[in-house]
Amino acid sequence: MIIVLKPTPNKEEMERLITWLESQGVLVHASMDLSQINLEVVGDTSRLDKQFIEALDVVDHVQPIRRFERCTDRKFHPEDTVIQVGNTQIGGGSLTLMAGPCSVESEAQVVAIARAVKASGATMLRGGAFKPRTSPYAFQGLGEKGLDLLRVARQETGLPLVSEIMDVSQLDLFKDIDVIQVGARNMQNYELLKALGRQDKPVMIKRGMSATYEEWLMSAEYVMAGGNNQVILCERGIRTFETYTRNTLDITSIPFMRRLTHLPIIADPSHATGKAWLVGPLSQGIVATGADGILIEVHNDPEHALCDGEQSITPEEFDSLAGKLTRLHGFMKEL
To answer: How far apart are the C-alpha atoms of 171 and 28, rounded to whole Å?
Structure first.
């Protein structure tokens, strides 16, 4: 809702109103409309009594807003959000390449891959320490030790880290991880999203395998409603009737989300199909449709990878692909 204040409102009364509104669990943004001060209230406003607010001396009237996803909505925030991570950024016209192994297996493995992808143009290292697997007997990741090995790779290369969190109880372990990834299975883990909203750290939310655009945006809304505006959306394919690929890449989501929201949007061609030979052509399509970045799985020995080797490309293949994507991105910017 928008609370329109009376001309030249009493400052103390206005501050008391803002304090009370924030105590009700909503966010308040003060803005000027000509000579009028408006309080834009973001979040769950259902418990706020419109008549009570309008009866206050400082208030002129209350204007309800029907669209709920106010934090993510481009109409509310017309400028693109740019997220700074170390010496790189996501959004703002740049193409961010995030690459690394599906799962961290050893120090030698992750450091070698990190050095290789950095030399090829990657500016962020992705790597899984905690792995959600369909089968309880599959490799679940190295856990806390995996995060430690990622930190070693960061120290060796300077690349910021992207890694997936599984549960609220792991928050302390991710204190110095540069970008916390919320996987597709956790996209609607609302307690986790609310906890991440209280962190001052970028959060990457992968689209759930059956999630609509609205549901995806509302997951981002949970994080932003908690005060954390550093949210990145990641398209990773959705489940359809097709069985030739692991998922179906919904490339439509990139321009569509660009219209709906100001948040950066990237895509993951590795999980989208589960086949390494498709990563190259899909990556080119992702860049051509205007994504802010790409998340690619790279492994130096895919045949013996402990997790998802069939969808991982080699460092040599990534090197060739990164050059093509950089050139394509430059060409698309000139059109």
So the answer is: 27
